[in-house]
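User: Before I run my own analysis I want an independent prediction to cross-check against. Here's the chain; please return only the structure tokens and, at the end, one sentence I can use as a sanity check.
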Amino acid sequence: MVEAKTNTMNALALFAGNDHDLKATSRNGLRAVLTLARRCRYDSAHAHRVARIAARLFEELRPLHGLNHEARHWLLCAAILHDIAKGTVPEHHKAAFHIVMSTPHLPFDLPTRRIVGLTARYHRKATPSVKHQHFSALAAEHREIVRRLSAILRLADALDSGHRGLVRGIRCKVTSSQIISRCTLAHHAQSCDRRQLKRKALQKGLLLQKVFGCKLTIKWSAL
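Assistant: Structure tokens:
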């Protein structure tokens, strides 16, 4: 129990320790998310890498998404929770959403649960659609937030598709028609790793291109 609490606090410090803009309520929410993820026996290394990449993309793409700090918090929560049902059911993305919606362990109101849960749910497979009950139940403003956060999370997840931590950093150049993402790779990354990561990133980056109306380009640099 002591070790689990220590791991949760270390992860909380990693994501929010130096973030003076994060409100106490958001810190409590993030703490609850980390505790829930641990209860579900999540792959913490992968989830935390995806969360870090997603947070970096959120900052780099601010000129496009225009979202506030609360939305960044929702993105972090969704990134940590996106794979909590993986290995338990075939459609783990949908199961993650249902866990977020039903668990008593998250201090979120209904709209926040939907935003976090749907962002996690849309990290793979189907993209946001008004044909989906819970997505259509959101206010129009919140639907747009989910679309933007899901687009970012999908790309972040793709950049750790092998769960090997090959992407060590990312910077983006944003123009009116293009997003050029330059990823720093671990020194041991091979050419086949680059090809696989680029294929996954461009595949899962289709929503990003659609949402922001920009072509996505992936470039590499070594440590």
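Sanity check: The two ends are 37 Å apart (CA to CA).
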